């Protein structure tokens, strides 16, 4: 008698980048330029350079949005010096990046709200409150972007999630990546902000309540995911959970919010 064994195979669901983002300039907007946002801003030139080297015709056009100014505390964990104190973070960062790389990226020294009209392809949220996330999801920019990338953290853990908001640009997607707000609705509930005991990136308590390099680690892992998307044109995951104290990173598998057409 012979015994036949069968093995179950798990189908890997992959997301493919819209072809239009491979043939024209990709507009990126960073909302929030604290610990995580400044790391994203300083890392995006490398993504731009790699895209150009691999044949992308135009690369990235980046806009930095934040109404905050540099404080003394920011000079400890963020890429600012005492000579920057009192200046707008976005102006300092954008001028520095443009001078070094020869770019013409833009700075908007205001907080993003629902009236933000500038169209963008990738909206990157690096804010530290649910109220700020809520405003971003109700902005006109969110209503027209191809992707929304949210990055958030607490003391020594965090996550980054790439999604495709329900909007006129994505409603024709056969399969749509769910956003962080769809996966975790509480993350945009401003009434829960008072219950959070999370350090602000601009608060002096962040020096003792936030692990070193948590912002940079999340930022560079998120950038690596975007680099893979533009290099290979596809992803098998659309985010990760990170825990520095345990040395663990768990990818978020793709489970589409859209329905598959027959």
The CATH homologous superfamily corresponds to NAD(P)-binding Rossmann-like Domain
Number of separate domains:
1
Q: In sequence order, what are the helices and strands, one letter per element?
A: EEHEHHEEHEEHHHEEE
The main sheet comes to:
8 strands, mixed
Structural class designation: alpha/beta
User: Approximately what portion of the residues adopt beta-strand conformation?
Assistant: 15-25%
What topology, given as strand order, has the largest sheet?
4-3-2-5-6-7-9-10
* Overall pLDDT confidence: 90
Number of helices: 7
Question: Which architecture name does CATH use?
Answer: 3-Layer(aba) Sandwich
Could you estimate the helical fraction of the residues in percent? 25-40%
CATH topology: Rossmann fold
Number of strand elements: 10
Distance between the termini: 42 Å
Stretches where pLDDT is under 50 for at least 5 consecutive residues are 1-9
CATH top level assignment: Alpha Beta
State the shape.
globular
Rounded to an integer in angstroms, the radius of gyration calculated over CA atoms is 19 Å
């Amino acid at each position: 008698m012979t015994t036949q064994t069968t093995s179950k195979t798990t189908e890997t669901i992959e997301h493919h980048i819209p072809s239009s983002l491979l043939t024209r300039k990709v507009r990126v907007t960073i909302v929030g330029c604290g610990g995580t946002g400044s790391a994203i801003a300083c890392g995006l030139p490398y993504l731009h350079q790699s895209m150009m080297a691999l044949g992308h015709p135009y690369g990235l056009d980046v806009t930095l949005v934040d109404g905050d100014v540099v404080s003394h505390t920011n000079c400890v964990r963020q890429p600012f010096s005492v000579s920057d104190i009192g200046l707008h973070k976005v102006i300092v960062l954008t001028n520095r990046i443009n001078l070094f790389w020869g770019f013409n990226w833009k700075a908007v020294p205001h907080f993003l709200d629902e009236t933000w009209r500038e169209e963008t392809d990738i909206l990157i949220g690096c804010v530290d409150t649910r109220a700020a996330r809520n405003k971003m999801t109700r902005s006109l920019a969110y209503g027209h972007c191809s992707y929304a990338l949210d990055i958030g953290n607490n003391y020594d853990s965090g996550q980054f999630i790439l999604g495709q908001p329900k909007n006129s640009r994505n409603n024709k997607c056969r399969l749509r990546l769910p956003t962080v707000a769809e996966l975790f609705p509480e993350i945009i509930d401003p009434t829960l902000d008072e219950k959070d005991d999370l350090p602000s990136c601009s608060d002096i308590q962040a020096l003792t309540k936030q692990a070193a390099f948590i912002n940079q680690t999340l930022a560079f892992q998120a950038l690596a995911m975007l680099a893979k998307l533009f290099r290979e044109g596809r992803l098998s995951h659309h985010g990760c959970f990170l825990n520095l104290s345990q040395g663990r990173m768990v990818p978020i598998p793709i489970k589409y919010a859209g329905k598959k057409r027959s």
